[in-house]
Protein 1
Amino acid sequence: MRYLPLTDADRTEMLSAIAASQIGAAGIDDLYQDVPESARLDTLVDLPRHAGELEVSQAIGAMAARNMPASSVPCFLGGGAYRHHVPAAVDALIQRGEFLTSYTPYQPEISQGTLQALFEFQTQVAMITGMEVANASMYDGSTACAEAALMSSRLTRRNKIVLSGGLHPSYAEVVETMARFTPLEVVRNRPMAPMPGVHDTSALETAIDADTACVVVQQPDLFGVLRDFSKLAEVCHAAGTLLVVAVPEIVSLGALEPPGAYGADIVVGEGQGLGVGLNFGGPYVGLFATREKFVRQMPGRLAGETRDVDGKRGWVLTLSAREQHIRRGKATSNICTNSGLCALAFSIHLSLLGEAGFTKLAKLNHARAVETADRLANVSGVDVLNGAFFNEFTVRLAKPAVEIVDTLAERGILAGVPVSRFYPDRDDLADLLLVTATEMNSTADIEQMADGLTEVLA
Amino acid sequence: MTADRSQGRATRESFVADTTNPVTFTGNRGLDLEEPLIFEQDAPGRCGVDLPNVELSQSRLGGHERKGEIGLPGLSEPQVVRHYTRISRNNYAIDAGLYPLGSCTMKHNPRLNERVARLQGFADIHPLQPGSTVQGALALIDELAHWLKTLTGLPAVAMSPAAGAHGELCGIMSIRACLEARGDARKVVLVPESAHGTNPATAVACGYVVEELRSDETGRIDLDGLKSRLGPDVAAIMLTNPSTCGLFERDIVDIAAAVHEAGALVYCDGANFNAIVGRVRPSDLGIDVMHLNLHKTFSTPHGGGGPGSGPVALSAELAPFAPLPWLVHGDDGLALVEHGEGDASQALGRLRAFHGQMGMFVRALAYMMSLGADGLRQAAEDAVLSANYVLARLSSTLSVPYAGPCMHEALFDDQAFKDTDVSTLDFAKALIDEGFHPMTIYFPLVVHGAMLVEPTETESKESLDQFIATVEALVAKAKAGDAEHFHNAPRLAPRRRLDETKAARSPVLRWRPPEPETQSKEQGTKAAKDVKTGDALAASVG
């Protein structure tokens, strides 16, 4: 078998060395002598025998062929996962064995590559969010969001978490799951369809009380709506409450004011849009940034700069007294393995983009979305509900959105995300469709989408 | 034919090995290249991508436009490729050599897995596509779940957890939800003192009080001690089997029976499943719930710290509490249950935004299909054989706290270094100079100066022999009194020992641009003697 280097001769020789030692076991079965007899399997489990590369490739390839890749059709899906072009260099570099097949950098002298990359990643995340510090990644945007709620509670010693109705419902559910067996009380504001000219934050402001640890908002929100959160930040801070801003579409930060500029205390994000790809939802990379003064309550790993004994600059994992392997039950989080290689992919993509490329990419996304919105607004039975948006907006359809999406999928168009997928019980949201356009959407895509909608809505 | 020596460049006849340590002008040393941060390579106007120019008559950003500069550096593609190539060479990796980190299962990462995970049909599908367009992806998850259920003997598996610790959360939450449904969540989770730190951290995150269980003299859970502690306040035991000492919990069946008798449940940390795949089904041991690390047991790469994947196998009693989404067989093929209604009314909510680590699922299934029922069992046996071989060969060189046989990893303590002034850390650093990644050190905490060696089944005997010979030689050197050698190690790594105290005391967690005035001054004084080490940058962060 191709992954197993030991030959039968090796095994025999090794067993005799073991037999001659104090272990004294004569055969493989003796090495398993501590397993209770009732639990020893004498035969192979009921699964297929080993297979060659070709056979495995063909079997898995057949499963892949039964899916509809997003790039094979006009695709306008967003809702927390965004399709962007990943430069070829990103994948080539993350497949270097030195990055791909190394462990968490516990031995810094021989892990400087990973540590330097993480230090750069942390810096990039801090820069684009407008925050002081960032960690070395979380699992995804939603778990980063839940960790932010927990961290807010630790910092404020308060228990109430207020979630905006515009927060991605899956993020809100993860916060609820994580809070379920803790003293935290999670208050979810009701999600509302976008209304022209209505984008104030008063409903959140009135929800803040003396026990509110944080308010969690999203920019752009689930419906693509953009809001000015600076007043909310003032109200929060006057009440001793933290403002957490979630950014599921990280490319938006190339065009939008960073949350740090309008008073965010913690910024969480989904980094998937840069470097990572869709991957049917995972693995992704959670971004987590905050103020320097809060760093000792941060979850997750941190790379920090230091010197070696020769005075050379180098990096180590630091402030690990926050973490489970040191602090055990008193750790800030139970997280161990994070999303290192996805963080690297994110960082390489952003290094290729640089200031000019990142801002241009964001502008291009916005332009495609504007083109799409304007074209769809001309389709009978489609109302574009957003005034302002980045690359995702909400339309109201004359028929239930899920029916339209299923029908268009049969015609080879991935039209968007029906809001009912998140809120099946909300009849008032059943005709809403989230539409995203990125640099991947051509004018021809947009025409096909508009034509498709025209036909199925007629 | 004789070489023409008149050309002057041929090897000198009287070649003498150069043992000096020459200082270079660049700071580079042959193939070892010093590389500054990307932020220190910025030049305005450079860009590593070409994007079309955008014509936008009117922005729809509603006044939310970014106003200031971000500060991201501009680099061309060749610079970016060179940057990451250079820094990658400062990493040790399983591709390059033995990586015997105990408890981490650093086995070979097959490249077939990388190829199939990148198929468009998996890598380029959106998590919210209609179910009819992702049937192949759902079928792959279903197939992987079938393999995991067969290998664990447990009837259900929750696929969404993103890593081992995330799986622990899933498992302990499902236990708590189940106990609440029975009427009493109880208060205490028992954790052996040798456990991974994630175990107590997880139990606390689920609202439990953690109590540590002492080990007996064989390094295993003390069954009588456990029995005397069990009572109506105990919700669960979180154990690792094989344990973090590399030992099989001999009394596991009796432990599980006692725990169940007391109305509590058994959680197993599956970090060490590699030792028993295909030879022992956890269900036959009385385990109720167990996470599996696809990035350990099933060969998906560690990537310098993730992404992992931590599916959780569950008993029939716990299955109704598995987190959303669920994968079910429906009238129109496979479907996701994404809301807690009907059969899923007791389900935990979501643990993450989408369905799971699809990219890791594809890799893990490719690995499992490659090895098959016969190969998976052989892999487990070879892993155990290799660890016992290391244990046997080194038992007279290093000190062994618990008698073998061991499972997939061999545990040593630091008794062998007594009176040598060499610590476990020093010894690990000396291994670096010899070209090995050190073993796990100072874990588990129950053994003084622990060294936990997990060779895995993908090392050749030659590789194990070289490691064993190196350890023997180093121990002899330590015993001969050359502590200095160890205190100064590593000498030959990209960096020598790093000041971790300084890093923690005044944390520098990001690069910041140098202050304009101090920049030129610092550059002038520092650049000549210390090329590209960025003193000015470190000093500017406060």
Note: The mean pLDDT of chain A is 96.
Protein 2
Amino acid sequence: MSDPVNPILILFIHPRFEQSRINRALVRAVADLPGVTLHDLYENYPDFNIQVEREKALLASSQIVIWQHPLYMYGAPALLKQWLDLVLEFGWAHGSGGDALKDKIALNVITSGGARESYQNNGRNHFTIGELLAPFHQTASLCKMTYLPPFVVQGTYLLTDQQLDRHAALYRNLLERLSRGDFQVEALRRFAFLNDWLEQGREGQTP
Amino acid sequence: MNHGFLQDALIYLAAAILFVPVAKRLGMGSVLGYLLAGITIGPFVLGLVGGEGRDVIHFAEFGVVMMLFLIGLELEPAQFWRMRRLILGSGTTQFGLTTLLLMGAFMLGGFPWQASLAIGLALSMSSTAIVLQTLREKGLDQTQSGRSAFAVLLYQDIAVIPILAALPLLALQSFQAAGEPSTFLARLPGWAQTLALLGAVAAVILCGRFLIVPFLRFIARIHLRELFTASALFIVMAAAYLMELVGLSPALGTFLAGIVLANSEYRHELECDIEPFKGILLGLFFISVGASINFGLILQKPLFMILLVFGVVTVKFLVLFLTGRLARLGLDQNLLFSLGLAQVGEFAFVLFSFMSQLRILSADWTDTLMGVTALSMTATPLLLLINDRLILPRFGVPEKADKEVDEIDLRHPVIIAGFGPFGSTLGRFLRASGVESTILDNDSDRVDLLRRMGFKAFYGDATRIDILKSAGADQAKLLVAAIGLPTVNHDLVEKVRKHFPKLKLMVRAANRQDAFHFMDMGVNDIYRETLDTSVRVGVDVLARLGHRRYSALRAGQNFIRYDEKAMQKLAPHRHDKSAYIFNVREQIQIQEELLANDRTANPSLNDHAWDNHRGVDAPTPK
């Protein structure tokens, strides 16, 4: 693999990490990748006392920012909201002179218990994942960042070990490609989930 | 005898010092070293010590007595209960079957059934001293075979009690006519002897429960270490003496006393005080066993002796192997277990001499069987050596692989040294969170109270390495040094870092100076006892003054963080007084600045919604 051109910062937010099979598998799959910094917010700030300057420095030294978290009540766990509120300061991340994050890339990596079918306008949850992530999309836009479709693992309670491994491998594949710049933003935007892009790419590569 | 005492002592000690290291270096274990030393200085090789070997055995038997006290001490009822199936199952199988087989063999050899039964019982015993020592030296005491061995030995040790009580009954027919009664016990008729034995046993148990613990508490309060050691020796000797008075094995008495005290808070302290005496006396015991092996007898009828030893060991081995099978031991574990326990134990010496007193056995046969016992004990380390070097490598399964991970956690993962107000809050919190800790404190009243409240607390000076060791400092993950007296705490930390470098240390510091001291020692996790509390008061003061609680809390959290960072920065300068003062001022300034910045530079702290910032869309207040 060539040298990573896009340093990646994974902001990992999970209050019950020790009980999440899927997140353990995902984290394990990517933790050792070069150019990837895994930053576990609940482990670093159990008291919610986020060190803003430290976070800013981490953001400044990366090109791609990933918010990896489970979907709780159709949103992120509380600490991520706290992080967004405190770190993305006016005059630094947005507003006049707030260009620190300009042209960086942001995306969500989501795990949800409900299956993909249930997150449809005619499904049990009425809204699609994309719609539920609108606040993140707009936050990224406000900070002049490029927002990508999410990478999503759903139906997490019913995953077999093989499926778990497959999702983990796919996630690693995603980070490798993002990291070495092997993607076109316009092309990615055509997919609801980055999973679909990766699967398609896979089939395309091995005809 | 007096003039020769020093000379004899020198010979014994020199033999031990010479042979034991050689034996250990050759991988034979210390027991064989002691036995070889004994044989060498005995009357049949160098003749440095003569007929008094028997007397020495008698004296050194006290080592066995002390060992039984320690075994009793380690016999926590809870642990016993956990192992009950293993103990009862394996113990009964091994002991019952071996006794029956050997009894049958001796009956075929023309002995009356009483004598055969007595011999069978005695020969079924294995040597606790040899096996436990060997297992511990090889680090095998927590393996499956180690635990099985411990269970069988325990069963045998306990079985000695009823056997000693029952032996006079076996002698009923032949005993009345025999010689002049020597003990108080011997003057009684058979049924009364049995009663007297049971009475003595009850006396030891009752004394232990209602007299000794309060007595130890009294001694502990005087805070004189040597007095405690003296008391420990006193207890052991008193129990032994009481038993001897009624003509019973002193080993039995101390074993009982040990069990009774196993549950008391003084367990570790007693263990540590008796241990060195036991070690020396046990070594002496093995030397004297070696010295007293009657080679004359063996040389008279060598083939017979060898066949006898071989027969007994084979029978024991086969029964043990079956027992191991039933306990589902793997083949390599089972070989270790069966070969390890195949010898005849030191209790057999005790039982045989009792039998000859009771005239169950003739003097000639007593000598022969004691010879068999000694020879089989000598053979054990050799058997294990053969197993180690020749048999096991063929299977290619190292016995260490069986060490299960959770076995290490048998002891509690956290040790709390010092259980004053500080340690006790910590201990309560940990217990509420499901983490058990071992607590060491040297205030006997407090330990007493804690134990009544169900804590696992031990009385002991935590700065003593042996006490730390028996509290499990080798296996524990963490030690919290929570002693209130800074000097004692420093001492503890220093010793732990030196002797248990793997043990993670978390340290209570009385104040800033104290914290600096620990920093100099290279400790990373330092907790100043007043810091968090005073900051909490400060947070509440702010809240009372009308600050938002959350802002006050965050200011407090930040203050602690800054303060700790400042400590780190100051630590290298503290020896240089003027630089230190300068730095303190500078640091206070930094703190003020940081805190002030926190309030002015981060308005979103007081106002959660970032888009409310006046730069975005809110109208600028006039």
Note: Chain A has a mean pLDDT of 92.
Protein 3
Amino acid sequence: MTKEQRFTVTRWIIFGLVALALIIPIVYNKYIKLPDTSSRVVKNIYDHIESLPEGSSIIMSIDFDPSSDEELRPMVMALLWHAFKKNLRVIGMTIWDAAAGGTLIDIFTTVAKEAKKQDGVDYAIMPFKPGSSAIILMLSQDIFAAYPQDYKKAETRDMPVFKGVKSIRDMKFAMCVSAGQAVDIWIVYGKEKGKMPLGAGCTGVMATDYYPYLQSKQLLGLMGGLGAAAQYEVLIDKRGTATDSMKPQTVVHALIIVLIIIGNIIYFINRQKT
Amino acid sequence: MIKRQIPLMIAFVMGILFIIQFFVPHQLSQDLLTGVNKWLMIIGGISLLLGINSLVHFHYVQIKRETPGWGFSLVMFLCFGLALVAGFLPSIVMWFVEPAKAGAEPVKWLSFIPLIPPFEPGSTLFWIFRNGISPFMATMFSMIGFFIASAAFRAFRARSLEATLLLIAAVIIMLGQTPIGQMLWQGIPDIMVWIFSVPNTAAKRAIWFGITMGTIAFSLRIIFGIERAYLGGTDQK
């Protein structure tokens, strides 16, 4: 077997193992039990929402497209469910065009329906507008200048959900869940101008980027990837997609570690031979 | 003169004005920022049109020249057209139907089109998003997992001290990100948090300080007219 052929065969064996590591835990999901985990950075967000008085206004910026949907949707759903359970007023928005419809509107309407919340009274969904940083800057000055109408073209000024709110300075919490640069924009323009507590959610690989902001207290808490979403589901006692999806993810992580170990054993054996 | 000096003057005046504006909390200053932000939103909207123009032009040229893979450009036009129709049609039909609600004769021949605004659950565009765009993008993204597993097997080798350190950190983080780490040893998640909070944060800060200093320097170059590439020319002072 040539080196090229060996490379192809090994690659297909690995692909097959990854496929099995995904399929088996999905099929036998209910038989797999994993211990509950918790981290301080996720719990900070939970504790803050828990501490807010009923009727407080919060804003959630949903900035991801379908490629990150599986990882970030459970996070938003858990956060939104928690906010609705606490009877908070939630404003939903996005600065990412691909998140405008199928993601933002879908998540909000699905969770609101389950929590029996009313559009315009308990929550409101803002339409997408171009000019990401400009939108956040406007929100810090006048929310109605940025969004005079909601996505259904209803006047925002007349909505009970906006009662007592003029800008994000009046919000008790802002949460940005993003798969791109939106968290950075929220920190630079939203947090610095709005001064409200800010939480961030992002994909697992992006989480390392935001740890400096935790130390500088510019971020109240951080949710990185599916693991954080699963932790949040445990905290709100509503296990769902994230908890279930952690099982295949855990098995694949274990498989990759085993592959790394095997790869290194082969490497050292070959090195000794040469 | 008009092409170069006026844009340079606008960049200088607006740059200095908005540096000062940041430190002035007066209402007049805030109104100025709100006004300019509205301009930015409008310009952002226009840039979307420019993006569409660029996309259409690129794929039109691909088809015209019959370059390899030009069939994909046809698919692009087909999908683009479908999304455009699905997005605009309900609004156009509503434009016809709205007067009918006020007592005029209903437009029966249009009744087969769902009068749900685009992106609301039940609309055609929403259906396309959930059943087309969403699974396609998720599939493309999830394939990365397979390649990462293959790459980890080949690339993560303890060839040197640096590579060994990287390897150990990667394994700890992979274990710490999932409950498996806690199952093996309670200390693994704590070590993961330490890696994130100390070495990672130190490196990130150093990189960001560099980037930020560069951004400030670049912005000042634009404000003072030293950097002129944005004008479209190549001459630098």
Note: Residues 257 and 268 of chain A are 17 Å apart (CA to CA).
Protein 4
Amino acid sequence: MKYILSLALAFFISLPSMAQDDPKATIDVFASQSAVQAGGSIDIAIRQNIIDGWHTYWINPGDSGEAMTIDWELPKGVSVSEVREPTPDKFFYDPLVNFGHKGQPIFTQTLSLWPKYSADSVELNGTVYWLVCDDICIPESQKISISLPVSDVTQNINQSIFEKAKKSMPRQVDWNTSFVKKGENVVLNVSVPSDLHNQMLDVDLFPTTWGIVQTTSDVTSEIMDDVVIFTAKSDDRDLTTLTQASFVIQTGNEAYEVTANLKSAESSVEYSFIFILGFAFVGGLILNLMPCVFPVLSMKALSLVKLSDKERSHARASGIAYTTGIMLSFVSIAGVLMILKGAGETIGWGFQLQDPIVVTVLATMLFLIGLNLMGLFEISGCFTNIGSNLTTGNDAKSSFFTGVLATLVATPCTAPFMASAIGYALTQSAFVGLLVFAMLGFGLAFPYLLLTFVPATQKILPRPGAWMDTFKQVLAFPMFASAIWLVWVLAQQAGDLAIIYILGLFLAIMFLIWFSKKSTSKLWKGLLALLLIGVFGFYSAILSPKSTMNYEPFDNAKLENILDENSDQAVFVNMTAAWCITCLVNENTSLSQVEVQDAFADENILYMKGDWTNRDEKITKYLEKFGRNGVPLYVFYGAKNDNGMRPDPIILPQILTPNIILETIQGE
Amino acid sequence: MKKLLLSTAVILMTTTAAIAAPVVGEPAPVFKGMDTNGVQHELSDFLGKTVVLEWTNHECPYVKKHYDGGNMQKLQKEATDDGVVWLSIASSAQGKQGQVDNATANHVMKEVGAHPTARIQDPSGAIGKLYEAKTTPHMFVIDAKGVLAYAGAIDDDSSFKPDGIATAKNYVRYALNSLKSGEPIETSSTQPYGCSVKY
């Protein structure tokens, strides 16, 4: 009944052209729905009716002309989207070519209302401007308006118009696409799904902006593995001013719109390949100066100062081992990255840092190295091999691991500083990519390698002396600074709570170091090492990402309501606070477990969570009701039993396990 | 093994005669043309002077946009007063919009108060195609050494609505000022806009 009324109110006016006596084109406006909801949106269609032999223009009009513009006078609370346009036709005016439309092209826009839009109807007025040409051009315009009731009751109208519009428009696809200027040509690489490859052999290419492809150019297609390569004559625009461009690829039966990223031009593969390798090498050299790496390298270099002539040959072996360690580490990280990327993961260099556990390990390592440089402790063989004898040893094995260590501690620095260069390497083939990474590693290793191989270079090193200790201690500070930065990164990833855990871990480490100096008992040291591992394990368990259960914020009124009414709803109340470690442990180890979440869903239990982090009268009162003055508190209100009686609420213990919860809610 | 399929490549470049496309920063193509007073002009006549080429068609709405409000005339006057040579070129073919005889052309120019150094009649489209002139207006600025310094639109408001002229950035004026002060031209190539040249 009501919608018939709405339908009657939904009408669309298009006044005749204002300026022209004999317009070459007119406009009709249509809505996709009979009414529009506040907070909702509908589509509107703008149809040009162009007389035979004349045409209007596409968003990129080609060699001349101008696209249609729609100026809406938008009332408050109403917005419209960009105009979606049909795939264009080509119009040839030798030697010029235009892109445009003939007949009855239909453009669409989405009209949206704010949720708070309160008027009964939407009255929209606007003006459409377009240029229409055959041999000559005439600018025309027309006032348009649209009037729609605002109502929740609505139905589809004008479906054939909107179906026709959709059919005439390019399909928006997210195929990976890049374009580059190669000599006289523009080359577009598009990852087209293989079932569509056959369609791609004969296409028209329409860039949505000017100056990329010559309007008169034909397009050749080449299919290589998963990529279709389109080549067309390039136009005169300087493409370096663009970073992205959209193209419509029109095949015989359908059109697709892709967004392409500009690839930096490469004049020839050989040249650019060597250039990239050189670039990577220099990048690696620069890495030596990064705050996380410089101390490692410095100490390694200074160890050479103390060598006697006899040991020079060992030095060479050590240089090679160090270099191998670095290059292997770089190549393996890159390899893993490429495999993951190949498997469709959307990751980039620095992906290692996306895992809170890895960040924790790195931060801890930097902290330890800092302490070591400070002279607080010497890492002895029994503890760990990695990083051992940073300052003294030169045997091949320890040098190899120093190389690995240098790579590991370098990663937090590479991520922000080398992102774009490494990103480029990753777009190359696997072989080129790995070589680039190997070169990066070689650059990082080079200064030390040089020192070990060319004894003359060692002369630039200052003479050993007491200053070395001071220098070493100074070097600890960049390490601590890097560690601080990583703690911040961790807090972004895993929340504020992570800070207290990682600083707790640092505290445990300090304690262990202090204690091992005090005590000579191996048993105690062993026990403490175990304790440390325990702390770390606990910490990892807390950090590892978990799905949290959907909850409703605690609302006493609502709870009372459910309990008073004859409702059958079961409720589980969790009173918690951010500073309550027990609460958080319970949430992580029990409440967020899958079996618990499933059980809540199966038994249709309303999960209410009260946050007592800040003072809250209502929660305090609720706690008092159960004789408590603190959190955690877990209360379960069971559903009614067969007699229609609600059982007494059950208070759960303060330390939860999944089993305790399951037994309680399943009434066993 | 890569499968390699090549589809047919048909080059559609049916453009006539053009020896080389005009490229900003390279010598501008040389041409000869007869003006509406029967005087022959050659680009080489103007070595040592800055030259502006303006493709025109007085019936095109975009040309009208710039003449009706006096925008084009003002720029022409500024430029020629400054010693710049301004050639308006009509490349409309015989019988197409914008092609008129010398007397009518002179009359039209007088009526609107146009101020070019000369108006060149190019009904064969030879000069237009040599410069790959696409639209009216389509503007070219050639420096005193005969090097193409600017090619493209007259300004950055490509609409046929005249409201934008006042606030638009006039690329030709910028180019002329930069040449005068010996500074590099910031924007030396833009997309021309307007009606197509009626070859």
Note: The radius of gyration of chain B is 18 Å.
